[in-house]
User: What shape does this take?
Amino acid sequence: MLSHDILIVGGGGAGLRAAIAVAETHPALNVAVVSKVYPMRSHTVSAEGGAAAVISPDDSLDDHAYDTISGGDWLPDQDAVEAFVKEAPRELLQMEHWGCPWSRQPDGSVAVRPFGGMKIERTWYASDKTGFHMLHTLFQTSLKYDPIQRYDEWFVTKLLVDDGRCQGVVAIDLATGRVQGIGAKAVIVCTGGCGKVFPFTTNANIKNGDGMALAYRAGVPLKDMEFVQYHPTGLPFTGILITEATRSEGGHLLNKDGYRYLQDYDLGTPEPRPVLRSMELGPRDRLSQAFVKEQEKGRTLQGPYGDYVNLDIRHLGEKIINSKLPFVRELCLKYENIDPVKELIPVRPVVHYMMGGIHTDIMGATPLAGLFAAGEAACVSINGANRLGSNSLTELLVFGARVGKAAAEYAARQKGNGTAVAAQAAEEVERIERQYRSGGGKGERMAEIRRGMHTAMESGAGIYRSHAALQKSAQEISNLQNRIQGIRLDDSSRTFNTELVAAIELSYMLDVAEAILASASQRTESRGSHQRTDYPDRDDDDFLAHSLAVRQPGAAPAIEYQPVTITRWPPGERVYGR
Amino acid sequence: MSANPQHTPYHPRWYRAPMPIFWWVRRWIHARFILRELTSIFVAGYALVYLLQLRALGMGPEAYGRFLELLQSPLSISLHGISLVFVMYHSITWFNLAPRALSLRLGGRRVPDKVIAGLNFAAWAGMSAALLWVTLTG
Amino acid sequence: MAVESLAGNVSETPATGQTVTLEVFRYRPEEETEPVYQAYEVPVHKDWVVLDALNHIKDHLDGTLSYRWSCRMGVCGSCGMMVNGDARLTCATFVESLLPGPIRVEPLENFPVVRDLVIEMTDFMEKLESVKPWIIRDEEKPLEDGEYLQTPAQLADFEQFSMCINCLLCYAACPVYGLEPGFTGPAVIALAQRYNLDSRDQGAGERNAVLDTDEGIWQCTLVGECSEVCPKDVDPAAAIQRYKVSSTLQWYRNLLMPWSSK
Amino acid sequence: MMKRTIEPFWWSLFGAGGTLAALFIPITLFINGLAIPLGWLAAPDYENVLQMARHPLARTYLFLLISLSFYHWAHRFRFTLYDGLQLKHLNLLIAVICYGGATVGTVAAAYTLINL
Ligand SMILES: Cc1cc2nc3c(=O)[nH]c(=O)nc-3n(C[C@H](O)[C@H](O)[C@H](O)COP(=O)(O)OP(=O)(O)OC[C@H]3O[C@@H](n4cnc5c(N)ncnc54)[C@H](O)[C@@H]3O)c2cc1C
Ligand code: SF4
Ligand code: F3S
Ligand code: FES
Assistant: This one.
């Protein structure tokens, strides 16, 4: 069995930041990053808009905290948010020192742009390829630290738990098909989100909730899983994201009559120039919900891929579009054959982000000793019921750095692995080996199961939810859990067997889907992105609390609750545009 | 498909496509590249002819006259015709690639590649005209 | 009611009724020593890219086909393949533009093939690391002192070269890399140049040791195809060419004023 | 810092030669190799040509044009042999032939022009 002091699962923004934090604070520890794709392919690469941190003199940490908390409909833990906003500027500056090409003001200082739900402009950006630049900067910077080792294109299938602590993983080396146990004193899960549980998403093919499922199977609760963010502006068909920066630069959302319909949904009155926390710069949950309402009124447009509205950025002019939104133009030209300089962009809400995730404390530690988590896979929680755009990239850095330090401190105190772990690893190796041999068999195609899951999630856990639909979907997912046991695999090769990987990913997604549906059906209130048609109001008496889904083998998960930490901002009304 | 391939588990045998000696005939863009490289033969070839002409010039009017006569032969004319095509190709590709080597900025903005290439072509035309003028008036 | 008609599962989009044949390069190291081509008949959907067609094959026709992909929006860099002989991102190449077909899909040229459309790229990763693609400074400024100032013009000096998504199309297009696998290659040199030209960096000298060599920039004969195929307009050929210019100037400077060099 | 390679030197000759050749060879070739032999242009008077060619500036120009064109060829052709015919293993031999040839040509040009 291979072995390291610290093992990080995931080479996205969070994983790489954590690895660097370990290397910098505890250079004697040996840290390895396991990733199922080369790190620079991780989905952080596709983030466009920017990363939030207080930098301008008229801004304040309290403002950032308040925007985050109210944006999250008072579900974020306020101690976590305070730590987050405090450490955010330092982390983004650190990125600057590592070479991230932040866009600049004429005098050479870092430029900021406004973003949805924010009172003051505080989003740092690198053109509209912020995530791309951040990920490549982090990856390239990580190369200079000798203690950081990598397992590129290794796919983790199990967390090894013995003696009440997590002591490593089992992973498949995709190129050779070798299944291998890797021991560790601490494991950090940074596997990103799970958008692929839904059919229509901005998320990449690799976002299957792997880490959430791995932790869930190891007995760790998943927190706030009912909160799924729909981004209001995705391209129909592909789901490719049109960044919020289009709206912060001054883009308008228009219904089929060319009317800025957001004014009908308590989001303010239209002004020609963008107004912060108003209209198009309202939070994502409210904008996506407004779309559904427009749809019900028959005021959306119909296209081959369903209903849509138009995003108008023509009035910004070619110069602004080319300098601040070049990627948007490229995507529209390449994937929709429209030129946003002259034409309207068709958009519709699209599944984008998981507010929920692996339950961790403010340092990224999970209830299972030795297991840590950060990034989109984790729920600290700073995002509550709705994440504000550009808080996630910053979260990767702040909590990536924190979790790296916390895990390093923990690992420095631990001894090596027990023998039971090796036996457990051998067992898992045998299980995967059996799956290889099952290739070439008969049975249902994976695509059928996936389609079933997509239908269930879309009808049950969409923008608006109801008891009946959630129950039906939960039943369906439980059927699929049985059906996946007998799926057909064509491929029995060991070399780069992507079919086997996809099958395991599908099983991860079903677990995550189960947790989402169960958490959603227990939360009989509406808050942020979780909107119940049968319980339209927020209910602070019963639900100012995080849900914790705990896996029950062979049964629906048990849902427990944990109160929200309130420090200085008592729950209030979410007010936008007034 | 050949029989009995060797494969040990955990050590994938990579397939490496061999690069044929004449790889550049398979694809037009590569053939174009080799053609560009071959223009150098014509550049040097003409430089040699020119040198010989200068040598004849130094050897006196008769020698020079004989050389000019040689230039009038059909063989010479056709070789020069072909060479002209190649040296023109050299000039065109050379000037088109010039912006790659140069990054000029004026007033904080990068001079667009098209402009740099354009200036090169203008210089080419200007120099050619100058040489022609010298020849005609000289 | 919830948004019900969200189509997004690409296989469920309206088909045009036509079909097209994909001739796909197959290589299964356990079974064969030489690659073969396998033909698949795939429905034509408007708006489908070649990657969607491959996914259709994988989901419905043959689960054994292996290839890499992730973002489907041209930014992760994993889906590069040869499409009808050209190095392309398959997520950015529309099937419609290749009709009536057949469409030949092969792994990126000049790399060893691990399996089917998956190429071996550790060579590239090692080269990438060898040029020290991170900010190198004699002295780090403490974070408390804020950012390094960098004007938009200084940013523009290297921005283009920072756009590389490591898709390797340029390596597949560069015959010199095919002939000389030791060649550092276009994307890596462009990346080195990205740091050299960054006003915050002082590491050009260290990178020179790798780049100003026979396997580095001097291997390039300016074929220029790397820049032609680059989906992100990085223009690695320009990066290399400018590097040659500055190295040459430096060479003469060292020759004429040996005392001025370190 | 120590330089590992002499490539920059060859490359600068190649580049300079390429530029001079690109600017001047087509028109020179056209005038002397085609236009005059074909009678499209009248051949200039012998004495005139000689006078002009003897001017120090002209000699310098002619020397650079011819010599650098040779080096341009030498460098390019060397790599064409390496890549186009995959002869990299004959590295040294090819380099000696190419650059050696250009050097011989350069000496010949100098000799001719000095004695003009
Ligand atoms: C299109 C788009 C635009 C966005 N724009 C913004 C924005 O402007 N601002 C903002 O703040 N946020 C934005 N976000 C959100 C943000 O980008 C993500 O939340 C964040 O990048 C997630 O980073 P991560 O490090 O947690 O995970 P990822 O970057 O997704 O990385 C996950 C890593 O885990 C690895 N992994 C997963 N499973 C396994 C396994 N089983 N075995 C081994 N390795 C595994 C993967 O290989 C990968 O390296 C955007 C998101 C999307 C989709
Ligand atoms: S330079 Fe262009 S073609 Fe080459 S790897 Fe980078 S993005 Fe791809
Ligand atoms: S194609 Fe190759 S030879 Fe140079 S210009 Fe590009 S690297
Ligand atoms: S799938 Fe990411 S670039 Fe094509």
In short: The helical segments of chain D are 7-35, 46-54, 56-84, 91-114. The CA atoms of residues 36 and 43 of chain D lie 6 Å apart. Residues 7-35 of chain D form the longest helix (29 residues).
